[in-house]
Amino acid sequence: MDAAPDSGLDALLPLDGEVFFIDPQGNHWVKFEVKRVAVSAERPHGLRYSLTLHAKDGARLVGFDNAHPVTTGSGPGAKRSGAFDHKHRQRTIRPYEYSDAASLLEDFWHEVEAVLTERGVKL
């Protein structure tokens, strides 16, 4: 049986290549890269994506992507998982469980709002 269509793709896919300044001062911006790709073990949802929040100097503050496998831990005990979907927040990387495009967008904007609040940014 085929999986149900991901209706959130209608909102996510058109964002590919878009960059938006999201505070009145222009100090923070978001960038979207989203492409359909062949379904694979690394990308079972058939998407290659990167949704990022950046500071004025270009530093990535938040990122949701599936560009590489997730490594947990550090040093000789670090382990690389088979999961490709993950989120970056400041200097941490955690696995992300992709369920659908709408949830990805909601989760991304939730992290963006949390980081901006921590930085004292008023929207």
Distance from first to last alpha carbon: 44 Å
Fraction of helical residues = 10-25%
Please state the CA-atom Rg, rounded to the nearest Å. 15 Å
Mean pLDDT: 86
Q: Unreliable segments (pLDDT under 50, ≥5 consecutive)?
A: none
Q: What is the oligomeric state here?
A: single chain
| Order of H and E elements | HEEEEEEEEH
The largest sheet has its strands arranged as 1-2-3-4-7-8
Helix/strand structural class:
alpha+beta
Shape: globular
Number of strands: 8
The fraction of residues in strands falls at 25-35%
**Number of contiguous helices:** 2
Main sheet: strands, sense, barrel:
6 strands, antiparallel
Return the domain count. Answer: 1
Topology diagram in text:
Elements lengths: L8 H4 L6 E3 L6 E9 L10 E9 L4 E6 L5 E2 L6 E2 L5 E4 L2 E4 L5 H18 L5
Antiparallel strand pairs: 1-2, 2-3, 3-4, 4-7, 5-6, 7-8
What does this protein look like?
- The chain is of the alpha+beta class and 123 residues long.
- The chain has one domain.
- It is built from two helices and eight strands, in the order H-E-E-E-E-E-E-E-E-H.
- The chain has helices spanning 9-12, 101-118, and strands spanning 19-21, 28-36, 47-55, 60-65, 71-72, 79-80, 86-89, 92-95.
- A six-stranded antiparallel β-sheet has the order 1-2-3-4-7-8, with helices on one face. It has a two-stranded antiparallel sheet with strand order 5-6.
- The radius of gyration is 15 Å and the shape is globular.
- The relative contact order is 0.19.
